Structure formats: C-alpha cells, structure tokens
C-alpha cells in the first residue's frame, strides 16, 4: 500500500466535481474575508496585555510578526494560484507530500477551524454578555444577563454558578445560550450561500474598520508623546513576552484559501487578497498600538478591553466606549463566519478524495454550498461551546493546529519549487538562495542577542537553553537542530529562503507551546490515524483507481 501517493495539479482541473460551488467572490471580497478573520479578539483585548508587557515598542513586534507571518502567507498565495480549489493546506499537502500527510493535515485543520471556532463562540458570548450588562447599567436597566444562561457546565461548576442556577430533577441547568445562538445564526448564514456570507462579512468589516478609524483619529488628539518614553521600558525580554499573543492576532488569513472555488478569478485574486489583508491589518495594528500607548501609560493597559479603557481614562463621552464594545461583538462574529466557511470546505475536499464519506461532499442544489458539512460544523461547534467546553482548555490546541498547517504549506512550496519547477504559477514566492542566507541569519540573531546582553554570548546561550520548563529546553534544542538540517538541505537542493523561514518561524512557535498542548496534539493525531487506517486508506479515490487499473 502506497501511503505517500500524490495527486497531480492537473487532476484538479480535470475533475468535474470541482464545478458545483457558486463563483461570486472578487479580490475585494477575499480581502474582506481576510480582514474579518484576522481582526478579532487580538485588537480588542490581547493587544492590551502585550502592550503592558513590552511598552510602546510592542509596535515593532507587530511589524516583525507580520513579516514572519508573510513567509507563510506568500506560500499560501503561491499554492492558491497553482491549485485554486477548496481544501487549503490539505490539498496542498496532497500534492507536495502525499496522501497520509494530507490526511494528517486535514485532520489537524479540524483543530484550527472547528475546535478553534468553539473558542471564538465562547469569546463572542463573553463580549456579548459584557455588552448586555453595560447597556443595562448605563441605558436600559433591564438587568444583568443570567450567569446560568451564559456558562457551560465545566466553567459553571468551577465558578460556583451551579449554586445559583435553577434545577431540573436535582441537576443544575447551565448552558451558554449566546454561544449557541451565534453559532446557529452563522451556520444558517453559511448554509444559505456564499453571496449572503460575503455580504455579511463585508458589512462586519466596514463596521470594524469604521470603529478602528474612529479610535485612531479621536485617540490621536489625546496622545501624549511622553508616554512613548522610554520606548522599550522592559527591554527586549518584555517585548518578546507578547510574541505569542501578537502572532495569533494574525492567524486567519489561511481560511481565505478554502474559498478558492467560489472566486471568480482565484489564481490572481486569492494571492492578492491574502497579501492585501495582511498588510492592511498590520498597518491598523501598529497605528492602534501607537495611539493607546500614547494616550495612557503602558502599565495601565493590562485590562480585558484596552480600547474602551483608554477612552474612559481620559473621560471621553460614554458613547465612545459603548461603540467600541459593540464593534468587538461584531469583530468576533466576523471571525466565526470566516472559520465556519472554512471547515465545511476542508471536509468537502477530503470527501471528494474518498478520505471521508460522500455525504461530507454533498452540495446543496439551490444554495450551492456544502450543506451536510456546514450543518455538521455548526453542531461540532455549537454543542460543545454551549454545554461543556472551557475555552482556555483548547485555545493552545487551536494554535498548534494552525502552526502545523503553516509549517506544511511552507515546506510544500519549498519542495515543489525544487521537484516541479515548471508548474504554472500565477504568483510565485521570490527565490532567494537559502544556502547563503540561513547561516547568516542564524549568526545575526545570536549577535543581536549578545548585543542586548552586553556582548555576553555565554549569557545568551543560558537564556536559550536554561529554562524552568524541560519541554521548552527540548523544543529549543530541536529548533536549532532543525535550522542546521535546513541549512544542510539547502546546500543539497538549493531551496528558496522564504518558504524555509515560514517553516522555522511557525516551527519555533509550535516548540514554545506547553507539553500538555503537545500531548493533546499527539492524541488527536493518533485518533486521526485510527480513522485513516480504518476507513480512509481503503476508500481513497487514488486507491480505488489503482485497484481498478
């Protein structure tokens, strides 16, 4: 049995199955989806903690992180221009690495989209309840939202909500109603059609951008330049504390690639949409951070809602904070929308290849959407978020799933540029010889770190390898080995630099995650391999074709 059998690019163009989805999306719509997916909780909450850790210099980290994300974004853009079909990283891995790797990444993407949306649905519920209570306090006086109606069982028992909840047959009634309702609404929207989803996403994005523009313009009048001094009050170590939060403020652009079959001109518009959305969001992140760190001292920003807080601090009219809170609810809904679009299309692609049952690939005859997969995604997200999942338990699983996809997509581009250089690409990652620059970059990083430590290279080595957590030490050793291996492979195969930097940056973030996250990741992959060998490997379209031949 050949588990590494690959699909060719031409097979996707020859397949009649890829003609069922409606084509409505333009480059503006795709860019809108990207902004909708990227600008979420990051700009409305985690930006505050990152600023409190690193001070005004956190703006530099946004720029550096955007550059790091761009390595993977360029690779997604090249693949999307080469294979403009649903499937995203799963499809790309099938071409570059073979079936079993494609299955692994397809199974992994469930962690990014479906499980990740559980986190988003719960976060949306928290924002909604906070807004509800704020409106009750300041305007409407309708009373606080009941805790037992906004709490899952796990969180409810942990926080004592079970003691104030009504009971049925002696069992406390607790469920997260807002999370269920928003998931139901978004699922209905994505089921109805890509045109309706596009229109809603564009409306959400306009509202978000209008509020962000308002914050930048109004906030700039209250900026005190002395708040930017010192620019790096906590040194580079303080700035780097925010790297995880900042990095994950950018993820989401990969979901755009799942809509490839619904684009009017995917080979040109998808790469543009991916890159445009990343650039726009970076500019907004930098401007917002400069404004809020200029309005108040960075130490005050360790709050859940920093944008609303800075206006309250300067005694601005109450309506400004209220508008920001409403925008946060809209922002989270738009993230949920894009990711609810992504998961069904991954399942659609896997079903076409025979790795999942045919029902996953069923397209609604009227709405031209993957109907069964869309409904199933709604259930997979809605029920756990409503009843028994605490968002904190699965946030890191979502992160590791996303980063793993980035690693494989970046690696896939590096491999195909060497093994199949003549494939038609409407967009191509610029070639820079990695064999010269990878060693140079490694040396440069060590030199810069030494300069920040008064030239003490021994101290730098201690900082890298002496950590309280053993898994972090192991991860950093693995990372250095990976870097050296890629240098060696670059001399042998003449790989391009940008895809390898995508592998290294995403790989570094993966290796910095906790041991518990890695255990969960491996358990999830083991379950996936059981499904693959139990069903998928036998029903694979390539396996059936080979058997018939």
Describe this structure in words.
The structure is a single chain. By secondary structure, this protein is mostly helical. Helix content is 71%, strand content 1%. It contains 22 helices and 2 strands. It has helices at 9-14, 27-38, 41-54, 58-82, 88-96, 99-140, 153-159, 177-192, 194-220, 235-240, 243-248, 266-295, 306-313, 318-352, 371-387, 391-419, 434-452, 457-465, 470-493, 497-511, 515-539, 541-548, and strands spanning 167-168, 171-172. A two-stranded antiparallel sheet has the order 1-2. Strand 1 and strand 2 (171-172) form a beta hairpin. Helix 4 (58-82) crosses helix 16 (391-419), helix 6 (99-140) packs antiparallel against helix 14 (318-352) and helix 9 (194-220) runs parallel beside helix 12 (266-295). It is globular and about 70 Å long. The mean pLDDT is 81.
* Top-tier CATH class: Mainly Alpha
How far is the N terminus from the C terminus?
14 Å
- Class of secondary structure makeup: mainly alpha
With strands numbered from the N-terminus, the spatial order across the biggest sheet is 1-2
Helix and strand string, N-terminal first? HHHHHHHEEHHHHHHHHHHHHHHH
């Amino acid at each position: 049995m050949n588990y590494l059998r690959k699909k060719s690019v031409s097979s996707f163009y020859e397949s009649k199955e890829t003609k069922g989805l409606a084509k409505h999306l333009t480059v503006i719509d795709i860019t809108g989806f990207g902004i909708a997916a990227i600008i979420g909780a990051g700009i409305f909450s985690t930006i505050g903690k990152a600023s409190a850790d690193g001070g005004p210099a956190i703006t530099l980290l946004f720029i550096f992180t955007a550059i790091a994300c761009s390595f993977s974004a360029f690779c997604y853009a090249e693949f999307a221009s080469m294979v403009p079909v649903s499937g995203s990283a799963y499809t790309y891995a099938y071409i570059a690495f073979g079936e079993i790797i494609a299955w692994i990444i397809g199974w992994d993407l469930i962690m990014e989209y479906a499980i990740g949306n559980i986190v988003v649905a719960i976060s949306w519920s928290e924002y909604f309840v906070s807004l509800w209570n704020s409106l009750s306090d300041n305007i409407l006086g309708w009373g606080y939202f009941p805790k037992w109606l906004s709490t899952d069982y796990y969180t409810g028992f942990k926080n004592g909500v079970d003691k104030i909840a009504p009971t049925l047959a002696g069992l406390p009634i607790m469920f997260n109603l807002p999370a269920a309702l928003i998931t139901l609404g978004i699922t209905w929207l994505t089921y109805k059609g890509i045109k309706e989803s596009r229109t809603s996403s564009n409306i959400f994005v306009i509202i978000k951008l209008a509020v962000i523009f308002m914050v930048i313009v109004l906030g700039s009048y209250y900026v005190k330049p002395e708040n930017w001094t010192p620019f790096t009050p906590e040194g580079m170590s303080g700035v780097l504390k925010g790297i995880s939060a900042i990095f994950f403020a950018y993820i989401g652009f990969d979901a755009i690639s799942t809509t490839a079959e619904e684009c009017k001109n995917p080979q040109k518009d998808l790469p543009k949409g991916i890159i445009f959305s990343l650039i726009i969001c970076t500019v907004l992140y930098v401007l917002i951070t400069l404004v809020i760190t200029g309005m108040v001292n960075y130490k005050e920003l360790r709050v859940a809602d920093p944008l609303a807080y800075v206006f309250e601090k300067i005694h601005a009219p109450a309506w400004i904070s209220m508008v920001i809170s409403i925008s946060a609810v809209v922002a989270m809904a738009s993230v949920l929308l894009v990711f609810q679009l992504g998961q069904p299309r991954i399942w659609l692609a896997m079903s076409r290849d025979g790795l999942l049952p045919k029902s996953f690939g069923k397209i609604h005859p009227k709405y031209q959407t993957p109907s069964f997969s869309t409904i199933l995604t709604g259930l997979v997200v809605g029920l756990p978020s409503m009843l028994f999942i605490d968002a904190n338990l699965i946030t890191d699983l979502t992160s590791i799933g996303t980063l793993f996809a980035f690693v494989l997509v970046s690696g896939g581009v590096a491999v195909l540029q060497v093994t199949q250089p003549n494939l038609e690409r409407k967009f191509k990652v610029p070639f820079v010889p990695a064999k010269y620059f990878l060693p140079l970059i490694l040396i440069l990083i060590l030199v810069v770190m030494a300069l920040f430590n008064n030239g003490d290279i021994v101290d730098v080595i201690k900082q890298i390898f002496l950590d309280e957590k053993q898994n972090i030490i192991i991860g950093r050793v693995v990372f250095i080995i990976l870097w050296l291996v890629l240098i060696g492979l670059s001399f042998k195969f003449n790989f391009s630099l940008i895809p390898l930097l995508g592998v290294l940056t995403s790989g570094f973030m993966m290796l910095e995650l906790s041991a518990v996250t890695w255990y969960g990741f491996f358990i999830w992959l083991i379950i996936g391999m059981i499904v693959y060998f139990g069903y998928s490997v036998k029903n694979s379209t390539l396996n059936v074709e080979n058997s018939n031949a």
